[in-house]
Each structure stands twice: as C-alpha cells, then as structure tokens.
C-alpha cells in the first residue's frame, strides 16, 4: 500500500466543469464497472486493477475516521478482502464503485468503534496536501471550495472534534468528494437528512476554526 495520502481538494463545482471533463469522469466510472463485471467472472487481474485505483482513497477515508496508521492499514486490507468475497453480490446502482468500497470500510470502522474505545487523533502528515479525486468522484458545491481552500492541520483537527455523523458527512462530501446521493447511501440516510447534517457540520466547523482560517 502506498502510504503518503493526499486530501482531495476536489474539482470545481459541476456547473464550472468543461463538458469534456465531465464526460471523462463518466467514462472512467463506466470502465470501473466493467472491471467489476470482469472480476465477477473470475478475472483476478481486474480486481487487482480496482484495488490499485481505490486503495489509497479508501485508506485516506479510514485514516481520517480512526486517526491511526496501523489500524487504517488493517481496516483497508479487511475492506478489500470483504469486497473480494462479496464481488458477485454487487450490481450497478448509479454510483461510483468507490462508494461500495467506502460503505464496506465505514461498516468496519463502526464495528471497531462499537467494540473498543479509542481517542481519534488526526495524522496530519499524511492527509494535508491537496490531491485528486479518484475516477468517478463527484464534485460538490460552494462549501467544497471552502474546505479545499482551508485544508490544513488545523482544519483536520477541527474535523476530528466534530461528532461522528458530522465528521463522516464532512469527510465523505468534501474530502472524498461523494455526491449528496452517494453520501446518503453510504450513511444509510435520506438526502434531506444528509443536507441538514452537512449544513450543521459546516456551521460547526466555522465556529471551531480559528479566526482568519476561512
């Protein structure tokens, strides 16, 4: 696993993206689903390609949730082991394959939180530099620009101080780049609830961040 992980600054909001850029994202997302179907037919190389494309992305999400490198590595490995075992159960649902991997990772993290007590500490040296979303990542709205502009050690520490649901929402929406719909599916909530949660989380972050950082 490649350990230096970058926080995804995310592309510009969708209405600002050139049509060819949006088409390229859609085409790559479709290619990833072709890899899923090949893996379902027993093509191990296809699953290996999916692993290569998403392992750092899943690791970054888990690291931000648990704050421990070694635990994040273990959870990431378990995520892909479970994905491989369940590959025949997945079918296209109008979202990027990364949402499925993230759902598995999130469930493992939640199981860990329920079974043990730990203090969340953000490991800032691995998550502070801007990076690119994986293929199929969804652009967000104006709040994405705020998060991208203020990504720093202090911001990550403030995210760690949010409640579990608010932290998860911020990570999924603005760092991982999922759409409201994808975030709702991963968090098993309706879109209205996610929008409300996102609004409260951003307002809470604004209060936590030192004056002048935003």
Mind sketching the topology for me?
Elements: E1 7-8, H1 19-40, H2 44-66, H3 69-86, H4 97-115, E2 130-131, H5 142-149, H6 153-160, H7 164-175, H8 180-187, H9 191-208
Parallel strand pairs: 1-2
Helix pairs in contact: 1-2, 2-3, 2-4, 3-4, 4-8, 7-9, 8-9
What report would you give on this structure?
The protein is mostly helical. The chain has helices at residues 19-40, 44-66, 69-86, 97-115, 142-149, 153-160, 164-175, 180-187, 191-208, and strands spanning 7-8, 130-131. Strands 1-2 form a two-stranded parallel ribbon. The longest helix is centred in the N-terminal third of the chain and has 23 residues, at 44-66. 34% of the residues are buried.
State the secondary-structure class: mainly alpha
Going across the major beta sheet, what is the strand order? 1-2
Order of helix and strand elements from N to C terminus: EHHHHEHHHHH
Shape label? globular
- C-alpha end-to-end distance: 33 Å
Key phrases:
64% helix; 214 residues; single chain; 2 strands; disordered N terminus; mainly alpha
Q: Would you kindly provide a brief summary of this structure?
A:
This protein has about 210 residues and is mainly alpha-helical. It contains nine helices and two strands, in the order βααααβααααα.
